[in-house]
Amino acid sequence: LTLPLISISAGDNVLDPQTNYYAGVECYSNGNNIYLGADSEGPHLLHLASNLRLGATWYWIHTLPLVRLNLSGTDVLPFITSTPIYDVDFLDAYSYTVTTYDPQGLPVTLSATASSPDISMQAVDNGDGTMSISTPVISTTSFGDDDFTISITVDNGIASNYQQFMVQVANVFQVEDISKTETLIFPNPVKHTLYCRNPENAIIQIYSLTGSLVYLNKSAGSNKSIDMSLFNEGTYFIKIIDGNNVVINKLAHIK
Fold this sequence. Notes:
With 255 residues, the chain is mostly beta strands. It has one helix and 23 strands. It has one helix at residues 46-49, and strands at residues 19-22, 27-29, 34-36, 38-39, 42-43, 52-54, 57-59, 73-76, 79-80, 87-89, 93-101, 109-114, 122-125, 130-137, 148-155, 160-170, 184-186, 193-197, 203-208, 213-217, 223-227, 234-242, 245-253. The strands form eight sheets. Strands 9-11-14-13 form a four-stranded antiparallel sheet, with no helix packed on it.
């Protein structure tokens, strides 16, 4: 049974959109028929029990039986008050602190999930109405194009609310051919030694496909050589940071 809800803007009958209301429909069955708007003595008199509100005026209507909503209680929903972080750079870690508010002052529990199986997300309920969400370095085989959705639920033991949003993994590649930049990396594929020419005072990072940082040099000289012989064979990402300029490229290591 679906009934239209005609709301009013003031008075005791105003419903709060953030509240769950439990309601029952008054009906009666005498074994042969089911009556809406009835009690154990039978159907209510239509001309006394039925009405219809159009605008600000109530009308009697003979075709509308009384349907009485018996409110047995209300649930006031907890709120998530924090604004999501909607983006993260490739080869950076994602973090977001969730804050909440419960109008009844009830303690809340928080949980979160990520839609992408490639994202190893940690969601820690801090026990004070906040939750810390974080990921390791975002590094997937899709190479910087792996957006994912985070779903967060807050529950006060009576009612729950949620927040869902998409995180965009930003592709920070400035050029397709890294040899066109002032920094030159060769050879690629590399077997023994990787050379980085002219990365003066730049930061060099090498990541595995799983996002693990396997090499870090915080202040490279004008010509830098990196011994790759101890690295496992496979695909890596090399990231060179020079101030606000970031260059990332795939690096193949062969034995």
